[in-house]
């Protein structure tokens, strides 16, 4: 009997060791409004050293962390809305926080024109930060797109598209990935030909400040899944929209996150002063079958100096203890958290908040 039990345990250990796991982390909009830029100024330079320090443990524990870079790095003069150009120090802080990949297809990617796009791509390349969504030319795009992530024994394809660029048009040979079903169908077919474990589409879409997805988002999500996309992560509305865990007719599960909201910004209207970060854990067994083992969200809140009493803007997990913030700031953070939790509890399907470990 003991020999038989030993064989069972040995068999189980072999099966467990054959399983592979990867943790993906998705954040919302990385923004720099004028007040953020001004507050980071420090004797001729810009200091973002403590901007992300409170959320770094959340970001860095993932195998791959991805966020939407919704500014250009177009150089001086540094400006916020409506034509963003952030100091280079902001990008250094993003990398230091632990982000591995940045999305660049969004409605602000052409804010500083051809030179701004060129400089943004050059800065990302100089820091060896993989980028997806905008390209110098067709050769640059064909080498980088679809983006293939190979880590922990997984092969994952990443796609990125934007609905528009605020009326600006890229100067040839520059390319911005736009939401165009003909192009996307070709890209998805190319992605499927790679035979990845998952195809994840990061979409810059929807209507700003709307708490629920509009009809175009819903229809496009259905279309993307029908074409072979596995999971969808959305941005742009600057508020958190619902998340869904769907199961198709084959039993395979798909995540649809309509909007993660702002990761960091100077927006202060209701629902915009924070955002959600989404964690997706995939596991692959010895047969090559990939499944979701865990998915959920964490809420974050931007502490503005006016509320926190600090000099600079700083991002906080909403689990931050009350003795770490001024009472007024803590109450505002909890107000944001309560509103967002109530909204997601009402409209989410199959996805909840990550439990504090």
From TrEMBL:
Highest taxon above the source species: Bacteria
Database matches in InterPro entries: Capsule_synth_CapA, CW_Biosynth-Accessory, Metallo-depent_PP-like
Gene3D superfamilies: 3.60.21.10
SMART domains documented for this protein: PGA_cap
Signal peptide: none
Domain Capsule synthesis protein CapA: 23-267
Family that this chain belongs to: Belongs to the CapA family.
Name under which the protein is recorded: CapA family protein
Organism classification: Bacteria, Pseudomonadati, Bacteroidota, Bacteroidia, Bacteroidales
């Amino acid at each position: 009997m003991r020999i038989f039990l030993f064989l069972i345990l040995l068999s189980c250990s072999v099966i467990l060791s054959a399983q592979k796991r990867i943790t993906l982390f998705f954040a919302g909009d990385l923004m720099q409004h004028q007040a953020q830029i001004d507050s980071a100024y420090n004797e001729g330079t810009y200091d973002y050293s403590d901007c992300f320090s409170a959320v770094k443990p959340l970001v860095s524990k993932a195998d791959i962390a991805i966020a939407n870079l919704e500014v250009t790095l177009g150089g001086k003069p540094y400006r916020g809305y409506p034509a963003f150009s952030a100091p280079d120090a902001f990008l250094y802080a993003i990398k230091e926080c632990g982000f591995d990949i940045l999305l660049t297809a969004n409605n602000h990617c052409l804010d500083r024109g051809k030179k701004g796009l060129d400089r943004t791509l050059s800065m990302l390349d100089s820091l060896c930060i993989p980028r997806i969504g905008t390209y110098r030319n067709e050769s640059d795009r064909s080498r980088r797109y679809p983006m293939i992530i190979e880590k922990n024994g997984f092969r994952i394809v990443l796609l990125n598209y934007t609905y528009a660029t605020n009326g600006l048009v890229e100067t040839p040979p520059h390319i911005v990935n736009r939401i165009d079903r003909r192009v996307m169908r070709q890209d998805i077919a190319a992605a499927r030909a790679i035979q990845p474990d998952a195809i994840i589409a990061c979409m810059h879409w929807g209507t700003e400040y709307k708490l629920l997805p509009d009809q175009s988002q819903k229809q496009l999500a259905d279309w993307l899944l029908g074409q072979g996309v596995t999971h969808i992560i959305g941005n742009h509305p600057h508020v958190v929209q619902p998340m869904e865990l769907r199961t198709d007719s084959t039993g395979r599960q798909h995540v649809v996150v309509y909007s993660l909201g702002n990761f960091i910004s100077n927006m202060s209207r209701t629902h915009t002063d924070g955002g959600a970060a989404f964690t997706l854990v995939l596991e692959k067994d010895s047969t090559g079958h990939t499944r979701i083992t865990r998915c959920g969200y964490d809420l974050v809140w931007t502490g503005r100096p006016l509320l926190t009493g600090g000099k600079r803007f700083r991002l906080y997990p909403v689990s931050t203890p009350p003795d770490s913030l001024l009472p007024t700031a803590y109450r505002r953070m909890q107000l944001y958290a309560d509103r967002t939790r109530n909204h997601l509890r009402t409209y989410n399907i199959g996805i909840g908040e990550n439990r504090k470990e």
